[in-house]
Write a structure and sequence with these properties.
- By secondary structure, the chain is mainly α.
- It is about 75% helix and about 0% strand.
- It has one domain.
- The protein starts with a helix and ends in a 6-residue tail after the last helix.
- One of its GO terms (molecular function) is chloride channel activity.
- Pfam families: Bestrophin_2.
- It is a multi-pass membrane protein.
C-alpha cells in the first residue's frame, strides 16, 4: 500500500515538473522567436528604403522613427511578460530605450494611459509603414513589402502565445492535491519505516 502511494506521489511530481519545464521552454522559445521577428521586420523595412524615391531626409526620419518604435515595443512587451503583482513596478519600464524622447509627448501620454501598450505601439508601427508607402519612402513593390507585415504579425502571435504562461497559472487543484499528498506522505513515511524495523537503532 505504501509503495503504491509513494509511486503515485512520484508520478504526480514527475508530471508537474515536466509541465513546468515545458512551460519554461515554451515561453523562452516564444520570446526569442518574437525578438527575431522584430529584428527581421525592422531590418527588411530599412533595407527597402534603399529603393526609396523620397528624399534622404525623409528616409532618415522614417528609419529613426521605426527603430525607436521597435525599441519601445520590445520594452512594452517585456513589461507585460514579467507578470508582476498589482502595485509592483515592471522592471522592463526601466530599460534603456533608443532615443524615446524624440517621440512626441502626446503619444507618450496616450501610451502611459493605455491598458494595451504593446498593441498600441504595434499599431503605430504599422501606421508608420503604411503612411510612408504613400510618401514614396517605401516604394518597394507590394509583394515584397507584404513580408514585413507577416513578420510583424508573427511576432505579435508569439507575444500573445507567451502571454498564456503569464495569465494562466498551473491549475490550482492539481497543485493543491499534490501538496496535500506530499504532506500526507511526509507524515506517513516515519510511521511506515518504524513498522519495517525491529531494532531501536534503526
Amino acid at each position: 500500500m505504501y509503495t503504491s502511494f509513494s509511486f503515485f506521489c512520484t508520478m504526480l511530481l514527475v508530471f508537474r515538473t515536466s509541465q513546468s519545464f515545458l512551460r519554461f521552454w515554451g515561453g523562452t522559445t516564444n520570446v526569442y522567436t518574437m525578438m527575431g521577428d522584430w529584428f527581421d521586420a525592422a531590418s527588411t523595412v530599412i533595407s527597402f528604403t534603399r529603393y526609396s524615391s523620397a528624399g534622404e531626409e525623409q528616409v532618415q526620419i522614417f528609419q529613426q522613427t521605426l527603430v525607436r518604435l521597435i525599441s519601445l515595443l520590445s520594452a512594452m512587451i517585456l513589461a507585460e511578460l514579467e507578470g508582476t503583482e498589482p502595485g509592483e513596478t515592471e522592471k522592463a519600464m526601466h530599460f534603456e530605450l533608443v532615443d524615446v524622447e524624440c517621440i512626441d509627448a502626446d503619444s507618450l501620454i496616450l501610451l502611459k494611459n493605455s491598458s494595451q501598450k504593446p498593441e498600441l505601439v504595434f499599431q503605430w508601427i504599422q501606421n508608420l509603414i503604411v503612411d510612408n508607402v504613400c510618401t514614396g519612402v517605401l516604394s518597394i513593390p507590394a509583394p515584397l513589402l507584404t513580408r514585413t507585415f507577416q513578420d510583424l504579425g508573427n511576432a505579435m502571435i508569439h507575444y500573445h502565445d507567451a502571454m498564456k504562461y503569464v495569465e494562466v497559472p498551473f491549475p490550482f487543484p492539481y497543485t493543491a492535491c499534490t501538496d496535500i499528498l506530499l504532506i500526507i506522505h511526509w507524515i506517513v513515511t516515519p510511521i511506515v519505516v518504524c513498522s519495517w524495523t525491529s531494532h531501536l537503532g534503526w
